[in-house]
Amino acid sequence: MLKALTRCSSLVPLGAHLRGYVPAREPVSPLLRVPRGHNRSPYLFRRFFCSDSTDGSDPVDPAGSEMKRVEAGEETPESKSSSAIVPTVVKPEDCLTVIALPLPHRPLFPGFYMPIYVKDPKLLAALVESRKRQAPYTGAFLLKDEEGTEGSDAEKNVYDLKGKDLLNRLHEVGTLAQITSIQGDQVVLIGHRRLRITEMVSEDPLTVKVDHLKEKPYDKDDDILKATSFEVISTLRDVLKTSPLWRDHAQTYTQHIGDFTYPRVADFGAAISGANKLQCQQVLEELDVHKRLKLTLELVKKEMEISKIQESIAKAIEEKISGEQRRYLLNEQLKAIKKELGLETDDKTALSAKFRERLDPKKEKIPQHVLQVIEEELTKLQLLEASSSEFNVTRNYLDWLTALPWGEYSDENFDVIQAQKILDEDHYGLTDVKERILEFIAVGKLRGTSQGKIVCLSGPPGVGKTSIGRSIARALNRKFYRFSVGGLSDVAEIKGHRRTYIGAMPGKMVQCLKSVGTANPLVLIDEIDKLGRGHAGDPASAMLELLDPEQNANFLDHYLDVPIDLSKVLFVCTANVVEMIPNPLLDRMEVISIAGYITDEKMHIARDYLEKTTREACGIKPEQVEVTDSALLALIENYCREAGVRNLQKQIEKIYRKIALQLVRQGAYIQPVVGAQVQPDDVKAQSGSVSNETAVERVEAETVDHTIDKKESGNAVEAEIVDSSADQIPTSMDQSGTPEDTLEAEKTQETQAAEKVEKVLVDSSNLVDFVGKPVFHAERIYDQTPVGVVMGLAWTAMGGSTLYIETTPVEQGEGKRPIAHRCQGHIAEKDPENPFFGNTKLHLHVPAGATPKDGPSAGCTMITSLLSLAMNKPVKKDLAMTGEVTLTRKILPIGGVKEKTIAARRSDVKTIIFPSANRRDFDELAPNVKEGLEVLGLSPMQSESALYYNASVGFA
Ligand code: ADP
Questions:
Q1: Is residue 857 annotated as part of the catalytic site, yes or no?
Q2: Mutation pick for ligand 1 pocket among 577, 646, 647, 798 (CB with most ligand atoms within 8 Å)
Q3: CA 547 to ligand 1 center in whole angstroms
Q4: Mean pLDDT by 10-residue block, N- to C-terminus, for the chain (956 residues)?
Q5: Ligand 1: which atom is nearest the Cα of residue 457?
Q6: Does 277 count as an annotated binding residue?
Q7: 683-694 in b/e burial notation, b at 16+ Cβ within 10 A?
Q8: How far, in Å, is the centroid of ligand 1 from the Cα of 574?
Q9: Around 794, how many Cα atoms within 13 Å sit in the side-chain half-sphere?
Q10: pTM for the whole thing?
Q11: CA–CA separation, 562 vs 540, rounded Å?
């Protein structure tokens, strides 16, 4: 098809031309060069033949007969009224000298039109001139290719050639061509008869003398000739059939074929074939009709092959296109069906739309590099197959990326007074922590923004580390997120997994940001001292990266793969033992230790916080219950002696649960009396717990004093109720009261019963009924420590505690080696006569060994215990001590002063001996902690005698 179209570059439909069709010089696109539907044009036939039915000759065979006439020279064109051939006075056969017109592309065959562009102005002028002179003929000769040049190059060069040079470049055999029209530089020619150049007449424009050529005589009836001609015709027919471009033309063609002469058939075949110009020139030059037919047959056969290939190509492409179209159509239908069924969610476009919808409101706040990654992933999502695993990975990734609160901050509270109010509302005491938070807010207020910080709250369990964290978040108006890192050994928990792993998840921090929805939350990292040791990677280092203010502005989560800014996050860590926190982490923290509470503080906490919340949680009204101070005190002293208040909270909850049960039972006790007159004894029998019943009885007994009047009046009310309801209910039943009536009656009974319920009183005397026997045995084993026993002070993860150090002689006798050289020194100094350490074998014991104690600070206590034994004097009453002693008799400071002091107070110690270096720690303690305590200091530079002195001060 392409070839056929290319052919048109030289064989343009005359009709089109006449109607203003101006062909381009170079075939840019063959399709563009052929006007649509031109093959239906009435001028179609004229594109090939100069004569048609309009020339007034025999309509059946106009071309053939005309050509015959032209060739035979029987008739001159001017004798006809042809619209195509301009009538001239000069007969073609008289044209023996012609202007030579070079044809760059193809030779012109007799009977065909050809438009050409004449660039040489002189030549053009000569053609115009000759047309005017009524001798509108010219010789059209194919241009030979110059060696090394082709196509347009050859065409360009030809305009520079003149005279002999041009003559040499022309094929000798050409066509006498009639000039039918000249428009601008476009000249339309019609081929007439074959010519051969004999000599040059003039140079510019090249004019030559020519011979008119005729076919060699042939026998029309020659079978071979006939057969060859028919073969050409039938092949042509096939070509015309397969090629849609020429199909219409086939009909017109067959109408005329009958009168086609053999040489004409050959010319026709060669002219419409896609053969190259040399092959066409060969046909033109061939004067032997049979040979010419054979040449043409070759060309048209080749054309046939080409059109077959063309057809198969077209078919293959068509099939491919229709396959794709079908797929597209089915896909569109599927989409429509999914939409109809509401299954659109997994649809890629719906997904992208969802992500974009999430992005749009915060687009300005998202950092550029993140936006870029999101865009890339969105594009990737579109390209991936929805069922592929990578699609899911990308989808999840995008889900995380778009869900994070980029640049979203909650409005922080910079109001110190308001913050203080909130903090006090939630927690009693904890002044250090509260002060620090208020400072933080104040700085934030002055600066206008608040930076992230790491605060570490350390202390024994139950002192409110976690709950104050929540309260701080409330005070600062930040979102709160808590995660515990106790035992965490997988770095991926903090830093996230790489996306390539199946089930990969981002780290805790990214999860936190997603769940809180702001970029400045308060993150409580619980149990940081119990961070596990990882086998692959170190969780402590990962924590460091997360917490370090220097690094966390660009925290890189493995899953997210884009840096996130955590610099505005306020981290609060909690720990029991600060020493267990990895050093680099501790370095970056601001540690606030919460030592624990003394009895007085616990009372406040219990009264103002724990009781209140527990009461509300149990649905008990304040007027329904009274827990006396003595009960609370007993509870704290005998049941909840540990540093924190969690156990106290549990005990209070226990009390209130029991109270709740009692209140409900009292209601149940009254109701049956009112309704079905169940005896109180039955109720007692039904209730399982004896202690509960006794508790009720006791409560009743104890409240007698001050509620006696109330009770009496209550009883009167009860009696009244009994009477009236006893009368009323049966009657209403008799009258078969509606269910509504019964319901209403029950309701009134209930309200009356509630009014009736007594106030439950919890006192120290009945406390046992609520919380059982005291589980906590006093740390104090001795009222007055015997000889060889001294109370020490220890620090544990659970807070401070007191402990005894006991020493007894095991064996006495000459030569038994002492175990304490330093004590020997003391004794030698103060009591040289004392042989105790020289000949006594000793046993030193620390009771309650199951409790872990820190070793060094017991040094002082041990020495005193030994001395006490040696001197056979007990130490002073209510004395406890702590301090490390070196071998060179130096006293070193110890840790946990506050915890130890609190523990000492709990054990009713009145005098404490601390190393002097700890004096400052002691002085800093809250007054209520120090109250009533006598403190003696042991200087680090003190000699043994001073230690002895101090110890002896302690002796009773
Ligand atoms: P921790 O985290 O230190 O182990 P929690 O924060 O879990 O302790 O506290 C245990 C309970 O004690 C919480 O219900 C808390 O409200 C309460 N609590 C602790 N300290 C105080 C306090 N100073 N004032 C009021 N309640 C407190």
A1: yes
A2: 646
A3: 25
A4: 35 36 34 34 38 33 37 37 47 84 88 84 87 83 74 59 84 90 88 89 87 88 88 83 61 54 84 83 90 91 86 88 88 81 66 86 87 90 80 89 88 88 89 87 82 83 90 90 88 87 88 92 91 80 85 88 88 89 87 85 90 89 87 85 86 90 72 38 37 38 36 36 36 43 53 60 86 70 81 78 83 62 61 72 76 69 82 82 79 83 83 83 82 71 50 51
A5: 3
A6: no
A7: beeeeeeeebbe
A8: 12
A9: 24
A10: 0.54
A11: 22
